[in-house]
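How a chain folds remains the central question behind the approach discussed here. For one protein, we set the task of working out the structure tokens from the amino acid sequence alone. The sequence in question and its structure tokens are set out directly beneath this paragraph.

_____
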Amino acid sequence: MSIALIGQECSGRHTVLNELLTMGYDTIRYYTTTPDYGYDNNYHISDKEFCEMIDSEQFLYWEAFETNDGINYIGTKYSDYAGGNKVVIVEDMAKLHTLVSYFPEFKSIYLKVDKHEINNRIMSIYTTKDAVKKVKKRNKKLKARNQGMETLADCIVDNYGRLPYQTAVISQVVWSRVGEKD
């Protein structure tokens, strides 16, 4: 029983993921070359180790991104997705296609939140105007890049006006019903 959570930024994906973790799910940890600041749950490895993992085709998907410190890499291993109850956040359609093509046991749940609620959440999380603009710009870019992701989802769960625990339980129930159809 594995779940791929999809949706816009501030749709509650991380909050629902954390609730599912308390219900016995495991999450997929990222491998990254970013410095370890001690606040995340990632595996921090060297550029050399990461490139060796790319060469030996260990990643389901990976990407390079630029920071103030230079180019960094992040990815997830194939082997981490196999077996058990897993929950993962998938941020774009290409990654969702890749995930379900290799691991059809993952069912995607789109967390739907209306635009007004997204804006309220952005304003409550991010304190500076620049951060708010950045998140809104990123959401706009993600929305364009992921046009139709909602229609690709195995199911849609409205994620506003309820507690995170309620959404997590609904996601479990919905997954079990979607899983029965396969």
